[in-house]
Amino acid sequence: MKKKDESSVTSTRKAIVTLLKQHGPMDAVTLASKLSLTGMAVRQHLYELQKQEVVEYEEEARPIGRPAKIWRLTALANRWFPNGYLQLSIDLIHSVRATFGDEGLGRVLEDLKHNQIIKYREHLSDADSLMDRLQKLVMIRMNEGYFPEIQEQEDGSFLFVQKHCPIAEAVAVSSRFIDNELELFQSVLGDHVTIERVEYLLSDGPSCAYRITDNQGL
């Protein structure tokens, strides 16, 4: 593909993602009308974006004909948009470290973790089993942009997999975020659970993954 064609494809896909961001879920026909393109052309772009896990769809019944695919953005679509708040957060981390040193930064991040634990525990308060807690944890982390999933293993343990790290730039500034994440999960899932990090996205792994084992039945 020529450079000009590649630029055109990227521009069109960016326009599709932007429309879905601005107007919410819609079908390919509506997108095509807004972009002055054919429905077939838009569908080709949507399927490529789906392969990149940027968009997904649900089928919606229509009075006549086949169900329509209603396309929406996934959490991974956030990477297509500038994040001024993230840069502000990074600048704040640098400022806290410069003013109060590593010890002061550690105290700030410890307080942040404490507040997260309180919030997460509120969401998990009515969950009885480990699976229930993990499913609720998935919902929380999905809303925060981590694109998580649970994979049940043959030995009865679970893999908690996060395919995106929305705070990757902040983690690069302070590795304390990594330790805090593990401690956060341990605190909200319970002392009877063993949690081990087995994959790390920022170390060239395809995801961040934690092996979670319930020791109550052992």
UniProtKB/TrEMBL annotation:
User: Cross-referenced Gene3D superfamilies, in alphabetical order?
Assistant: Winged helix-like DNA-binding domain superfamily/Winged helix DNA-binding domain
Give the matching InterPro entries: WH-like_DNA-bd_sf, WH_DNA-bd_sf
Q: Per its record, how is this protein called by name?
A: Transcriptional regulator
